[in-house]
Amino acid sequence: MTEEPTGHRVALVGGGVMGSGIAALVLGHGIPVVLVETDESRCADARGRIAHQLRHAQLMGVLPAGRAPGELATSTSTADVAEATAVIEAVTESSEAKARVLAEASAAVRPGTPLITNTSGIPISELAASTARPAELLGTHFMNPPYLIDMVEVSRGPQTGDATVEALVALLGDLGRRAVPVRDAPGFVTSRLLHPMINTAARIVGEGTASAEAVDQLMEGCLGHPTGPLRTADMIGLDNLVDSLDALYERTGADECRPCDLLRRKVRDGDLGRKSGRGFYGYGKDEL
User: Fold this and answer.
1) 149 and 131 in contact (C-beta within 8 Å)?
2) Do β-strands 151-156 and 137-141 pair in parallel, antiparallel, or remain unpaired?
């Protein structure tokens, strides 16, 4: 990958909704990216998503003007993250999957390279044991879509070193993002507040109290929520939401974190939100 003036070379492992969105943000700031997926078909899908999101970000005017996008390379081998100055893991919200990727990346990169797990709620302390150098591991929680939302929740584990935090804050600054640090805990702040609220909203719909549209209208018009919790759920991906709620419930035992029947049924039926074309709402091809 060609080195840009910032000196960053970012590796992303996982090219799903969040991984491709983060890749679009990084590329849009002129920084080269190598994206690792499990096979060539997934690499091709990720390239298509990234190109679509880059176009959208450019149309929205949220990328630096006059800066050429960074170079995108794709790979099916974690060994190809070796030259990165930072690795961002963005695979499914599973501690086992994340630990496996972080172990492979930790073995491939040079000492001193930050390993960043993009997680909505798995404590960094749980994942640290999978890495060769726990001081180089910390967490981010980018909001979706990452190129539109300029604030990032940053979670520091008990073993995370100061140099790693400083390197991540510098990278986020070069991406035009504002870092807000929080302590390591299940769900951190945003997921611990938002995901149980979405779960409750879905439960209200499932019980027949109100439609999804009515719930979102009331939350927007009366309480100032910018999109409504159920439109937000569709953007997150209902499968990702259920995974996050399961992780929260397992670690906290809080009943409001136990995914409600309607959420589980939608995931079982393949109604995953925007990415599948249907969740609580239906979406046209240009919205996917």
Assistant:
1) no
2) antiparallel
136-168 pLDDT, tens digit per residue, is 999 999 998 999 999 999 999 999 999 999 999
Q: Show the tokens assigned to 277.
A: 């074309």
The 3-class secondary structure across 233-253, one letter per residue, is HHHHCHHHHHHHHHHHHHHHC
What is the CB-side half-sphere exposure of residue 284 using CA atoms within 13 A? 1
SS3 114: coil
114: its two tokens: 């930050």
Asked whether the beta carbons of 106 and 233 are under 8 A apart, the reply is: no
Sheet with 72-75: list strands edge to edge.
Answer: 72-75, 33-36, 10-13, 86-89, 115-118, 137-141, 151-156, 178-183
Q: In whole angstroms, what is the distance from residue 279 CA to residue 282 CA?
A: 6
Which residue in 43, 41, 8, 45 sits closest to 27, CA to CA? 8
CA 244 to CA 207: how far, in whole Å? 22
C-beta of residue 136 within 8 angstroms of C-beta of residue 161:
yes
- Dist. CA 183–CA 134, nearest whole Å: 16
pTM, two decimals, is 0.89
User: What percentage of the chain reaches a pLDDT higher than 70?
Assistant: 97
The Cα–Cα gap between 167 and 162 comes to: 9
- Tracing tokens 């790693």 back to the chain, one arrives at 164
Chain center to CA of 254: 23
